[in-house]
């Protein structure tokens, strides 16, 4: 498999974790978002959304969108599972994952703030405050959804919610979010990075890290 991604992309980070947890070998193909490589015609032919990640399967078929990719991996390689079997518990984990992937990430995408800066005069400082605000809002919601006395977000093994959380926490640290109210999330992050699958997926460990 080939994973087209960018080292600092949280969506690419999610898929790296998922591939590692499933024990899948893959080739990393860097796409420099800062240089605009995602808009190159040959890449747009693979991913019309002009984003990352893009996963090329062994048979040449193409998948985009991190949650769709992770869902495919979970459906085709059942162990370890990313979601519980029980429908209610499954929905709880998905709700927490979506809090990260659908509430925080879309409004914190760099192309959103770039548009706000060029179209509405948002300053660089305003952009950072924008990031911090939406991450703080989302983390409060995420933390409130969690049960107590679990090793990870919902159980003793990492699941889809943890994959999304750990990747987003990278951005929180990068942009200086005040993590004082989120001890539980930091504990989960610390435990996750004791696992090789999470540790190897760190942005700074990727070949295109700079």
UniProtKB/TrEMBL annotation:
Q: What is its EC number?
A: 5.2.1.4
Where the record annotates domain GST C-terminal, the positions are 86-210
Q: What class of enzyme is it?
A: isomerase
Q: Which residues form the GST N-terminal domain?
A: 1-81
**Single GO BP term:** L-phenylalanine catabolic process
Q: Which SUPFAM superfamilies match?
A: GST C-terminal domain-like (SSF47616), Thioredoxin-like (SSF52833)
InterPro entries annotated for this entry?
A: Glutathione-S-Trfase_C-like, Glutathione-S-Trfase_C_sf, Glutathione_S-Trfase, Glutathione_S-Trfase_N, GST_Zeta, GST_Zeta_C, GST_Zeta_N, Thioredoxin-like_sf
Q: Which domain of life is it from?
A: Bacteria
Query: Gene Ontology cellular component?
Result: cytoplasm
- GO terms of molecular function: glutathione transferase activity; maleylacetoacetate isomerase activity; maleylpyruvate isomerase activity
Which terms are listed as keywords in the entry?
Isomerase, Pyruvate
PANTHER family xref list: GLUTATHIONE S-TRANSFERASE YFCF, MALEYLACETOACETATE ISOMERASE
Similarity comment: family membership: Belongs to the GST superfamily. Zeta family.
Q: In its UniProt entry, what is this protein called?
A: Maleylpyruvate isomerase
């Amino acid at each position: 498999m080939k994973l087209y991604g960018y080292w600092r992309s949280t969506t690419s980070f999610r898929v790296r974790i998922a591939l590692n947890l499933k024990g899948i070998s893959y080739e990393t193909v860097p796409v420099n978002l800062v240089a605009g490589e995602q808009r190159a015609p040959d890449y747009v032919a693979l991913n019309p959304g002009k984003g990352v990640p893009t996963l090329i399967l062994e048979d040449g078929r193409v998948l985009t969108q991190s949650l769709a990719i992770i869902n495919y991996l979970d459906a085709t390689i059942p162990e370890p599972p990313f979601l519980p079997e029980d429908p209610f518990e499954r929905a709880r984990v998905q709700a927490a994952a979506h809090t990260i992937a659908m509430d925080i990430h879309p409004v914190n995408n760099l192309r959103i703030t770039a548009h706000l800066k060029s179209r509405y005069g948002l300053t660089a400082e305003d952009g950072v405050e924008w990031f911090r605000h939406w991450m703080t809002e989302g983390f409060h919601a995420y933390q409130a959804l969690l049960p107590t006395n679990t090793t990870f977000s919902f159980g003793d093994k990492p699941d889809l919610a943890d994959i999304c959380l750990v990747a987003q926490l990278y951005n929180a640290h990068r942009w200086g979010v005040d993590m004082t109210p989120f001890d539980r999330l930091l504990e989960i992050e610390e435990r996750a990075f004791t696992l090789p699958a999470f540790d190897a997926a760190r942005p700074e460990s990727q070949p295109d890290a700079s």
